Amino acid sequence: MTEIALMGKKIGMTREFYKTGQLVPVTVLKVEKARVVQVIDEEKRGYKAVQLGYGKIKNSKLTKAMKGFFAKKNTEAKRKLKEYRIKDTEAYKEGNEFGLEIFKDIKFVDTRSKTIGKGFAGAMKRWNFGGLRASHGVSISHRAHGSTGHSQDPGKVFKGKKMAGHMGDRLRTMLNIEIVKTDLENELLYLKGSIPGSKNTEVFVRKSVKNINKMTVSEKIAAAEEAKKTPDKKKK
Question: What is the 3-state secondary structure (H, E, C) of 32-84?
């Protein structure tokens, strides 16, 4: 079953210091509250799900159909709607809102966002090709991608051939990213390391799908301090 996600905006990167002096680079996300727009019953659709709404939008930018939909649900218009299949819908009621508090006891999350668009890129930049030689008669094709197709048989270029083209601007999911800290008052989430996307990129954050047993940075520091306190056994 899909984990429910919150939508945030990538503010940028900074760093966090622990009391030991250890530095950790972090990405800061401004996470909006999600509203339950509708709860989907198994009797109607054949599956249980909740539809969440994210972000604000002017009524003038809505279509007539969506205006009617939000009026019927008696809720303010939301910019983005996403549906999540869940096992139990009893905990959710239309109009309920929730934010970063759902990550209260969670150490690791998954994120989904769009990578930075690089425009039209050559084969060397896009696929890390080596290019042609810099000497020995190579003329005006130093950064070319080499031969493209085959001989008479099969007489075509196969789909998926690595060539120059549009690079970046793709959805990417990052797994098992550690939560360094959460600021509930300012709705900020600090995640360890970098996340795909430029500033102001929309990022969906959900509880980590995989079961992670590894320790967080703060747990490692605590374990190291505990180890220092315990006296070493005297050598015989």
Answer: CCEEEEEEECHHHHCCCEEEEEEEECCHHHCCHHHHHHHHHHCCCCEEEEEEE
CB 124 within 8 A of CB 42: no
Q: What letter does residue 115 receive in the DSSP assignment?
A: P
pTM of the model as a whole: 0.85
- 3 state DSSP class of 160: coil
Ranges of residues in the chain whose predicted pLDDT is under 50: 1
Q: List, for residues 23-58, the tens digit of each pLDDT value.
A: 999 999 999 899 999 999 888 889 999 999 999 999
* Sheet of strand 34-40: strand arrangement: 78-85, 49-56, 34-40, 97-98
Pair 112, 29: CB distance under 8 Å: no
Q: What pLDDT, on a 0 to 100 scale, did the predictor assign at position 52?
A: 94
CATH 2.40.30.10 fits 5-120+167-229, yes or no: yes
Cis peptide before 154 (omega within 30 of 0): yes
Of 121, 144, 125, residue with least CA distance to 134 = 144
